[in-house]
């Protein structure tokens, strides 16, 4: 890899963004392959501990989407 | 976050309904571009290593 | 049992077995060229020679036909044996120097070049062919001649009709000496053909013993008696020798089974139209003229070319493909099918888009059509995307002839463009979009059953009973009811089930059996043993992600005991296989890397349950929707991403624990929101099946939009039928109608909803187990075409009103104009309203009936009279109604001056502007959804960008929502005519009954739980929960007084309380902190 690809840990709500991501797949829409999805039941489940842990362990970015 | 030495741009929040696949793709592109522009996450990672 | 020594080891075999058989059983390899499990051994090739010590001396015997005896000693690979075999191979290599299998053997025995004189034969005289021929019951060939003249031949060296061209000899020939071509040219007099695979549309052959297709249910091979040799000669039965469980019984007979039933549902389907009778298209002459069904197979990952798009004649990748629409539809000339097949426009567009996806965007796809009929939900959008984004060419022209291009396999066509030019264009391949046709067998069945058919041979039904045949108790669904696509067929089938359920309500559950419950293995305290199954999903995943390397990688992850890949993980055979692997390998955690858990998690969880594992010991990695589908141009990173996602899933699944599910009672009553035709039908069906139902209608009367409509496309009086339905509803004891009512509050969940209605100022609380949303839609109020400025410019509904009022002024009109697509298929409302073409044409015909001399013009963009509605279009043209097409950029112009009303339009045939003076302009206005955000919020159901509700699954779940216990029907789903609203009303009831009839269901185990020891009784969770699941344990309770507790039935597992708990006293089962942290760690490890 010539350029280092950043990794973004994503927390997606099962009912909203996760569904949107599925639909994007069904629609064969292309997007950058940098995100890694963790399915959470709801953004309400999100705790600051999660993204701090992700960043501390070396993720280049964190994206939380409800 | 700045206090801890993390660029705030590394953390993004958004709200997308399950029908908005186009918006999803747009947001992914945005988030990726923002994080790419910031370069590798060294500051916070190092700091964390030191603490550990 | 006979005991002897094999290579020094003591082994056992049955009396009468040969050495080779026993050696194979013990995994000792002995080379042979002339042995076949199903044939008597002959010892022809001598390769299987072994050394036998009989107690006194050693000698050499052929192991394939030397019977075993007590106390013998056999050496299969001693030096003398090896030397002997080497010589045999060398001699065979001299006889047949070019046979691959002999070269291979030569390499194994270290022979580079034979020392003997080379001949040019390919036959080693092993006799397999003659022996199998005898086994087939035929003896068409035998070994003839003696010594060096010996060869395989037919008697007297002539072509014979004894040979039935079964090809068995070619299939067993080890050297390739016998080929099918040789049999054809010098052995048999019989014709010789491949057995066409029905599944692959004849593009591939299949065997006489076969599984129809990979997902077939039951997944058991069948024997095709029409081609099986045993049923021709009484011989063969080779298959029985190979079946390990003696499951094959050639004597089995067809059975006549008599069943006593209360109702019959007919779903015999259709057959694709056979275009060979169109000689001008040369389907049977030109290999590269194929049907759309053949194209489907070529594009399919499980098809004959594994999804690689190549044309049949030379397997070249086509650069240009054309689709011809309406082959076998809308045509009285050659095929006698006047109806529109409804589905072909959409499937042609789909095939064109997929073809481009497979072959790259430089593939040229052109669709030749008459009217583009994309009247289904979201279809118009797909059409626009195909045109604008994918660059599929749409050419409005009917092509007459396909000519081959001499010297090539290409095809040439001549067509007339819209502007009247004649164009000649070459294509590599032409796809005929064949229509649907009812087979003669189905027509015969209908005759036997005594049910009436339509002119198109479809089952005759009425608008108000669209799934009832002409014979009581017999119902119909699917394409036999009329040409239709998958969602409409699924709606139909639910409706037919409901219709049968209505008359058989009393018999429900009288013949049910309880499902066997597989006891759950206790895994607590066990070390995780994880199984990872990576799905190829045909080429959906494997086409992008390197699946074998991902599976290999998965096997290296901690605690992973087993990793493999599957072609389709969701197919029934794979499911059974997975359950067996789980048991065999003693797995206690499972990861499936495939599609989305939102659709497939329940399926795989059931596999776990069947394998005796708690279903929560499972995790999915979404490597299709989130990976292969969206990163198809980046296979390396997609593969890396797949590995990351699987690692994350493996880390999480290792921490999962078995979870228990709460049991939930289902209240046996329903709430239907909306008192239109769909809502009333649903209510009536629910009540007839024994469930109390409440209808909430916001207006002061029942009937909805149907109140505004004059007659159906089949000529039935709508008001009369509507009154009957309203009366039925009003007189039904089980149906409670709430008029002038609105839903003001909604609590609860599937099985126990609690809705508060405001009915004419009064608050009523209704408790119900399920809800049906049938809120309908309304007519668009136009702002274009001077609507509202003159009473002669009306909407379709206003014209209907005039018909209903028997307005006498209508018959005195000299001229009438209909303008289609008013508000539909526009940029801000990019959907087709589905009903307007039929509605306008029917109204035009009604005007013609009143005054045959009236000049009627219908201005349209595409006429979409799908199915047998097409007859109306034909009738209208025959009766002189003039159809003039307009395009988006040249819309008709309405002008009003000096009391004169006129329409200006560009005539697409003459190419000149035309001015029509008229007495009436009818605007076919769009159907606009109600966009009831409040209702959507109450039931937590989604709406699409047009404002229609989004069903659970566009194809397979059209009448229900993703929210449990909430169902959908009528125009709130999408614009539709009355018959389709009624079908969906019944379908929604049917789906609801599947829940109501169960009486209890199990909730999710992914719920929050309080750890009382750390709970500080602060009450944040109690106040924050949107579902009121947490509460305080009473102060007087014996255990944990004052602490929080969570009702697992109410808990939706959102985790809000978990994140907000100050003491960290709440855990979310299945999404616990340590599990999410493990996932984070897993994702970061590769960085």
How would you describe what is shown here?
The complex is a heterotrimer of chains A (66), B (52) and C (1087). Chain A is 29% helix and 26% strand. Chain A has a three-stranded parallel sheet, with helices on both faces. In chain A, helix 1 (17-26) links the parallel strand 1 (8-13) and strand 2 (35-40). Chain A has 66 residues and is an alpha/beta fold. Chain A has two helices and three strands. Chain B starts with 10 loop residues before the first strand and ends with a helix. Chain C is an alpha/beta fold and 1087 residues long. Chain C folds into eight domains: 2-108, Ubiquitin-like (UB roll); 128-187, no CATH class; 271-437, FAD/NAD(P)-binding domain (3-Layer(bba) Sandwich); 448-507, no CATH class; 536-654, no CATH class; 665-778 and 943-1002, FAD/NAD(P)-binding domain, CATH 3.50.50.60; 779-928, 3-Layer(bba) Sandwich (FAD/NAD(P)-binding domain), CATH 3.50.50.60; 1008-1068, Alpha-Beta Plaits, CATH 3.30.70.20. Chain C has 28 helices and 49 strands. In chain C, the strands form 16 sheets. In chain C, strands 2-1-5-3-4 form a five-stranded mixed sheet, sandwiched between helices. In chain C, strands 12-19-13-14-15 form a five-stranded parallel sheet. In chain C, strands 29-28-27-33-44 form a five-stranded parallel sheet. In chain C, strand 40 and strand 41 (913-917) form a beta hairpin. In chain C, helix 10 (344-359) packs across helix 11, helix 14 (547-555) packs parallel to helix 18 and helix 15 crosses helix 16 (597-610). Chain C is globular.
Task: Write a brief structural summary.
By secondary structure, chain B is mostly helical.
SSE blueprint:
The complex is a heterotrimer of chains A (66), B (52) and C (1087).
Chain A: E1 8-13, H1 17-26, E2 35-40, H2 48-56, E3 61-65
Parallel strand pairs in A: 1-2, 1-3
Chain B: E1 11-14, H1 21-38, H2 43-51
Chain C: E1 2-6, E2 9-13, H1 19-25, E3 49-53, E4 58-62, E5 73-75, H2 79-95, H3 100-108, H4 128-135, E6 142-144, E7 151-153, H5 168-172, H6 180-187, E8 209-210, E9 222-223, H7 230-233, H8 238-242, E10 264-266, E11 271-272, E12 289-291, H9 292-299, E13 320-327, H10 344-359, E14 364-369, H11 379-388, E15 393-396, E16 402-404, E17 411-416, E18 422-427, E19 429-434, E20 436-437, H12 440-449, E21 474-476, H13 486-503, E22 530-535, H14 547-555, E23 560-566, H15 572-584, E24 589-594, H16 597-610, E25 618-622, H17 624-628, H18 635-654, E26 663-665, E27 669-673, H19 677-688, E28 692-696, H20 718-731, E29 735-738, E30 741-749, E31 752-759, E32 762-768, E33 770-773, E34 777-779, E35 793-795, H21 796-804, E36 815-822, H22 836-850, E37 855-860, H23 870-878, E38 882-885, E39 893-897, E40 900-906, E41 913-917, E42 920-925, E43 927-929, H24 933-939, E44 966-968, H25 978-996, E45 1000-1002, E46 1008-1010, H26 1020-1024, E47 1030-1032, E48 1044-1046, H27 1056-1060, E49 1066-1068, H28 1073-1085
Parallel strand pairs in C: 1-5, 10-21, 12-19, 13-14, 13-19, 14-15, 22-23, 22-24, 24-25, 27-28, 27-33, 28-29, 33-44, 35-42, 36-37, 36-42, 37-38
Antiparallel strand pairs in C: 1-2, 3-4, 3-5, 6-7, 8-9, 11-20, 16-17, 17-18, 26-45, 30-31, 31-32, 34-43, 39-40, 40-41, 46-49, 47-48
Helix pairs in contact in C: 2-3, 9-10, 10-11, 13-19, 13-25, 14-18, 15-16, 18-28, 19-20, 19-25, 22-23
